[in-house]
Amino acid sequence: MKVEIRISSACYLCGLCIESCPTRVFQLLGDHLKVDQDSCIYCRGCEILCPAKAINLRLLDEELTISRRKTLISIK
Q1: What gap in Å lies between CA 62 and CA 39, rounded to an integer?
Q2: pTM of the model
Q3: Is-contact 39 3, C-beta < 8 A?
Q4: Is residue 68 pLDDT above 70, yes or no?
Q5: Helix (H, G, I), strand (E, B) or coil at 16
Q6: % of the chain beyond a pLDDT of 90
Q7: C-beta neighbour count of 16 within 10 angstroms
Q8: With contact defined as beta carbons under 8 Å apart, do 61 and 37 qualify?
Q9: How many helices (H) does the chain have, and how many strands (E)?
């Protein structure tokens, strides 16, 4: 899966993306964020959790589609 990850200048290096990423895409190196786009699984957790809305993900695989479904009712 090919993903493009963009970090805007709004990033203030809070570290939430580093802590939340299941595949460790992000690393803090001094005063900047290193991004390993090849490890991204497009869960979009970083994009959702970023308080500065500084992370933008884009799926580059043209033939791959991702669908998310919400559970409306859970029957036990």
Answers
A1: 18
A2: 0.76
A3: no
A4: no
A5: helix
A6: 71
A7: 16
A8: no
A9: 2, 4
Residues 11-28 pLDDT 10s: 999 999 999 999 999 999
The tokens for 31 are 């005063």
Q: Report the pLDDT averaged over residues 41-50.
A: 95
Report the C-alpha gap between 17 and 55 in whole angstroms. 9
- Domains of the chain as residue ranges with CATH: 3-59 (3.30.70.20)
Beta strand segments in 1-76, E = 3-7, 26-29, 32-35, 55-59
What's the DSSP call for residue 17?
H
Angle at 60 between CA 20 and CA 45, to 5 degrees: 15
